Amino acid sequence: MKVSIFDVAKKSGLSVVTVSRVLNGAETVREKNRQKVLEAIKELNYQPSAAARSLARGKTGIIGLIVTTLQDSFFDAVVKELNEILSLQGYFLAVSVSTGMNSDGNHDLLQEDRVDGLILLSPMEESKYLLELKRRAIPYVLIDNQLPENDSYSITVDNYDGGYAATKHLLELGHTSIAHICGEEMFRSTRERRSGFLQALQDHGLAPFEIVHGEFDIASGYEACQRWLAEGNLPSAVFAGDDHIALGVINALLEAGVPVPGQVSIVGYDDHYIASQLRPHLTTVRQPADKIALAAADMLLSRISGKMKRGAGIRIDPELIVRESTVAAAD
What we know:
The chain is α/β, with parallel strands linked by helices. The chain has three domains: 5-48, 434 Repressor (Amino-terminal Domain), CATH 1.10.260.40; 62-150 and 289-308, Rossmann fold (3-Layer(aba) Sandwich); 159-287, Response regulator (Rossmann fold), CATH 3.40.50. 42% of the residues lie in helices and 15% in strands. The protein contains eleven helices and twelve strands. The protein has helices at 5-12, 16-23, 31-44, 50-57, 73-88, 126-135, 159-172, 188-203, 218-231, 243-255, 289-305; strands spanning 62-67, 92-97, 117-121, 140-143, 154-157, 178-182, 210-213, 237-240, 265-267, 284-286, 314-316, 319-321. The chain has a six-stranded parallel sheet with strand order 2-1-3-4-5-11, with helices on both faces. A four-stranded parallel sheet has the order 7-6-8-9, sandwiched between helices. Strands 10-12 form a two-stranded antiparallel ribbon. Residues 3-57 form the HTH lacI-type domain. Keywords: DNA-binding, Transcription, Transcription regulation.
């Protein structure tokens, strides 16, 4: 027979009202009584109804998450971490894959009383979302947002520092002919990674071999490298805008019989799953999905509870992961 709140009350010797207050985190319960209730819950293995608790709190118990794609191992890792963290806090994560809002400014997760809060992961049309979220008074947090003016409630990675660290690593290995293949210009990460790359070169009095404007895909790296091969002019190192671009460069070089990293060293970005599976294993810049998710969940729950009154964005440091695709420059 299923244990009820009345059983917990009887076991603890306290009222149902007191038990309910403990379950809902009320601060008015005496510590001695709170401990009695918790001990009774443990002994009886009582599992409170999530629906009932949500109703008592006037909440849905659901956090929404909107992401543009799940065909990305970094996004996938962030979503998994968020799901685990929020589950421990008694929340369900509702994920929606969407490239933007409807023309009337609506989205399924933005409907009345559907979610207690919303996380936007690398959103497109972020300003449109924020307009609706603010109008409907839904607490939100942005991850990897594109516009600095929306940083008040955001978690971002220091992509400038990541670009600088990747380039500095190549410079310390003695490379002076370094190319950079970018992702799409619409992304803030593209611009910041490039800025870090250029600053590192400038600090050493160097100019880039070339900056190629492409997309975050394998084809961009492959096509840029094929052109260099056709021209008979290769850089000694490449800083790729992400790991997919790096894979395209490696594919083109290996097809042409150019050893990696023997003749060309390569650094990627993101530390996608493929980075540790490639041969050679890819040196890359890791975006720490666990730290990003924890910071986002903590910020959103603080907003929902009313503890966070004033916005303050958080910048998380990336980490250079040195593997096999980079070696000292040839003499």
